[in-house]
Amino acid sequence: LVSQLMNKHLEECAASTKVLTTEWRFEHFIDTFGKRDIVDLKKKDLKAWLDQLQKERGLSAKTLNKTKSHLSHFTIWAVEEGYIRENPFERVWFSESVKNAPRKKPRIVFKPEVLEDILEQAKAFDKVNLYPFLYALVHLGSRAGETLKLKWDDIDMDRGVVSFRAENTKTGEARRVPMSSYLRVFLETLLIKRFEEVVDVF
């Protein structure tokens, strides 16, 4: 079974494999194909699975390519070990709907003076909730949804790093963002005001 061979692959290639780079995609793959015999991994099924990920998560072609590349570490290993004759991911091509998906809107970059004005207005409107949230967004360059889900455990004041958990990011990949000195002081002050037993940052 695919799940059994995957466990063997992880044991033998723990230092080099990338199949666990994005945990939720790995789990999705095992949930979908884990009970199948590896010789039954067909091009059409893998293609349909990738297309499903694209529709459910709104993933870009770049992210789909990365998913395919990471999971190919497993199927290439299976070829080398003689479980299958060829890597089924090699023959997977994304559907035209994915290839021709409309490009995302260009990112809007605000001038510093515009950001300062936005923050001043937010501070005047809601100093307790809205202003701290927008201040963090400006200094982290993060998405609103993932920022709202930040816990104080994700904030490392000593190292000056904010960690975004994989389950909270749009791409499903965890990442760490360094804090500016301004943000660190701001968050330290915010923590004191909100008491240390509070779990959520915002």
Write structural notes for this entry.
This protein is mainly alpha-helical. The protein contains nine helices and three strands, in the order H-H-H-H-H-H-H-H-E-E-E-H. The longest helix has 20 residues, at 61-80. The termini are far apart.
Key descriptive features of the protein:
3 strands; 52% helix; elongated; 9 helices; mainly alpha; single chain; 202 residues; 3-stranded antiparallel sheet
Portion in strands: under 5%
What share of the residues lie within helices? 40-55%
What structural class results from the helix and strand content?
A: mainly alpha
Tell me the number of strands: 3
Would you tell me the overall average pLDDT? Answer: 83
Low-confidence stretches: none
**Biggest sheet overview:** 3 strands, antiparallel
**Going across the major beta sheet, what is the strand order?**
1-2-3
A few lines on this structure:
The chain is mainly alpha-helical and 202 residues long.
Q: What secondary-structure arrangement, pairings included, does this model have?
A:
Layout: H1 2-12, H2 23-33, H3 43-57, H4 61-80, H5 96-99, H6 112-125, H7 130-140, H8 144-148, E1 155-156, E2 161-164, E3 175-178, H9 181-194
Antiparallel strand pairs: 1-2, 2-3
